[in-house]
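Ticket 4471: requesting a sanity check on a complex prediction with nicotinamide-adenine-dinucleotide. Repro inputs:
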Amino acid sequence: MKNILITGGAGFIGSNFVKMMLDRHLGYKVINVDALTYAGNLENLKDVAGKPNYTFIKADIRDRAKIDEIFSTYGIDTVVNFAAESHVDRSIVEPEIFLTTNILGTQVLLDTAKKHWKIKPGDKYCKEYKPGVKFLQVSTDEVYGALGKKGMFMETSPLLPNSPYSASKAGADMIVRAYHQTFGMPVNITRCSNNYGPYQFPEKLIPLMINNCLKEKDLPVYGDGMQVRDWLHVSDHCSAIDVVLHKGEAGEVYNIGGNNEKANIEIVKFIVVTLGKSESLIKYVKDRPGHDRRYAIDNTKITTQLGWAPVYTFERGIKETIEWYLNNNEWIENIVSGDYVHYYDKMYRT
Ligand code: NAD
Ligand code: DAU
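Returned structure tokens:
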């Protein structure tokens, strides 16, 4: 493993991952390919922009010719695919781009890797890790659908996605699995719960609430606010991906989660109190259509088989995250002063 193609590396998790890989693996070359959609931001990477073992290329993962050229030029032996349309609310308003980027883009990457890695149907590596090459698909717990009050998602749980976003991610998982089963492509799929931390685009719950709170704007809580998510600090997600990349068995899926379930309203109230604002800013609004009630991840497989464990407690992580947004006001202002829209306003007008 030497020349790693990280797609979507200018987004929230991708940019944290690029920086972690450059810090941890000095001998690796990191090639970051990102289309710089509304969510991609090179500001996230300014600290590493000049590093000799780091290259940024503005390209779309759906552009077959360009992806082929990148594989040839850089001798890519590893792919970590973060590139995606990632926001559920947007997928309700504009589903098509979710399908083309998240499914077809993934297939372009798989096909190109298959060609350059000379992987053939029925390849003997089907059940083994082919040394030196790997395709890691960054997926999500949302592919499993929603839970009731009890239970947790296991890697063996059925895929029952409920939003266009999660359906597109499940579609990508299926095509990644098919390339393993049919061609012997050495793949892993990781399915992580909700991330939080620095550089998250302010359309997502935590940075949106911090930003609105600081400006004393309404805090729109969907439905009754009792939907439950499992929250994991982005650096713990990145370290889990690094572990799966190096130790994961080819063809396997690994759930990643923090055993840290919180109702949305708890998070919003914590942010309000920490920033010393009034709870009167909280406004209960009409629910997201098809809103998943609860997610919870069973992470036994990655913890017991690969030895990964999260480092952050939620208390430490959320405090540091709030501080980061306070100290990086310019980063968020550059985004929200542009053509940024909270898609809630559009969800019922589709
Ligand atoms: P993000 O929206 O912040 O970043 C996505 C990045 O992909 C952006 O930089 C964007 O420019 C790029 N991109 C989009 N379309 C592209 C295309 N066609 N070609 C090339 N680049 C393109 O998303 P994120 O929150 O960092 O999520 C990254 C990945 O992790 C996604 O695949 C998402 O499904 C998955 N994931 C996210 C979470 C979470 O809580 N945010 C949890 C689990 C899994
Ligand atoms: O579970 C992993 C997923 O987490 C990732 O796959 C997605 O890419 C990521 O966007 C995230 O999806 P969610 O829909 O859970 O995240 P979001 O931040 O949009 O919403 C979190 C919860 O907060 C959800 O129950 C909806 C609610 N919410 C969100 C917003 C933006 C509100 O109540 N008000 C809001 O304004």
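Notes from triage: The mean pLDDT is 95. Leaving this open until the requester confirms.
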